[in-house]
Design goal:
66% helix, single chain, globular, disordered C terminus, mainly alpha, 16 helices, 382 residues
């Protein structure tokens, strides 16, 4: 539908769509919190989760693909300087914090059974994965302190501050190699991938911060360690939930944090599955290019994720702002948006049936390398 529209018109629509999308979605929180009675409220607690991974994938195909692609020389420089796009991301932070505390109140006060409480944690954790971690990711890549620190605060609100260190100093350096826990190997299932990604990335964040401080002649376990600061802020979040709603508040806070982190790592699984950087004659990996991330150009999910789906351009130019990320037709292409592929990833036989042929077609003539890297990561993970 939208792919047939004039790109200039679509660009104007996109400008305000990032904020308007969430202005439409966030009111679903009080709606679902107050919907249902006599037991049906327990099913409504799951609504947001099924909206994100059920309704949005369908709407993706109805709305269609994004026809816009800012010109590198004439549009990217000016678009990059438009302050309104920065304001959008910063506005989302207080909106998320308000939604988080409102959701904690709902969890503690609604007449939910265990099924409803679990559904509410999963629903809010999904929103946290999209807003807190996805936008935290966007902001921590930026140099201005207000953006960088807001990104850290967003990540701290879902107890995933290690991502701020590991993603930039780890993942962006080793992406699409066996050394990267957030790059899934060919034939690796999401269930094999997830615990290894969550565990290794947490440990690697501390290792990277330890190494940075040692190089600077500072003690790793000191106030110079930014992870200590960010995880202390997470502890303050947890304390505030305890003071407001007791142990039920703490359960909700850490529950939604776990769901948010899991959601992020499932998206990581999708973004780099089966892709690998070749080893050069000097023993080093080839530099990161748009060939090392899966792209998806479906308009609606791109808006919801602040163009995270144009992931190839992000890895090629990590500091690029979301509004100027470009689509590459020559990059590996997913058959659906990230929301739809999330569902497929949860069913490994279906995932392999759909995605493996695309990996094999992309690496036609060098599958021997692909199997070697898949085997190597399994040995590393063992």
């Amino acid at each position: 539908m939208i792919s047939k529209m004039n790109p200039t018109t679509v660009m104007k629509i996109k400008k305000w769509s990032y904020l308007l999308f969430w202005a439409t979605v966030l009111p679903l929180l009080p709606f679902t919190a107050n919907a249902g009675s006599d037991g049906t409220q327990n099913y409504w607690a799951w609504f947001i989760y099924f909206f994100v991974f059920g309704i949005i994938p369908i709407l993706d195909f109805i709305v269609g693909k994004d026809p816009t692609n800012p010109d590198e020389e004439t549009e990217v420089p000016s678009l990059s300087e438009e302050k309104i796009y920065r304001i959008f991301t910063l506005i989302m932070a207080p909106l998320w914090f308000g939604a988080l505390y409102y959701s904690g109140w709902v969890f503690a006060n609604n007449d939910y059974s265990w099924l409803g409480k679990l559904g509410w944690i999963v629903s809010i954790g999904t929103v946290g994965g999209i807003i807190a971690i996805n936008l935290g990711h966007e902001l921590t890549h930026k140099d201005p302190k207000i953006e960088n620190w807001t990104g850290g605060l967003l990540l701290a609100s879902v107890t995933y501050a290690g991502f701020k260190v590991e993603h930039i100093r780890g993942h962006h350096v080793t992406v699409s190699t066996p050394e990267d826990a957030s790059s899934a190997r060919y034939n690796q299932s999401v269930y094999h991938f997830l615990p290894r990604a969550l565990g290794r990335n947490f440990v690697n964040a501390w290792r990277l911060e330890h190494a940075r401080l040692r190089r600077q002649g500072k003690k790793p376990f000191s106030l110079h360690n930014e992870l200590i600061w960010w995880y202390s802020i997470s502890a303050l979040f947890a304390l505030s939930f305890f003071m407001l709603w007791g142990w039920m508040g703490v359960l909700f806070f850490f529950g939604q944090s776990l769901v948010a982190a899991t959601t992020l790592e499932i998206i990581n699984y999708i973004e780099h599955y089966g892709l690998h950087r070749r080893v050069l004659e000097n023993g080093r990996y080839e530099r990161v290019t748009p060939a090392h991330s899966w792209n998806s150009n479906y308009f609606l999910t791109n808006i919801a994720l602040f163009q995270l789906q144009r992931h190839s351009d992000h890895h090629a130019y990590a500091k690029r702002r979301y509004q100027v990320l470009r689509h590459y037709d020559e990059s590996p292409q997913l058959p659906a948006g990230y929301a739809g592929m999330y569902v497929v990833a949860l069913i490994p036989p279906l995932w392999k049936k759909i995605v493996n042929p695309r990996v094999e077609a992309y690496y036609e003539g060098e599958m021997d390398q692909l199997f070697r890297t898949a085997k190597r990561v399994n040995n590393i993970s063992a």
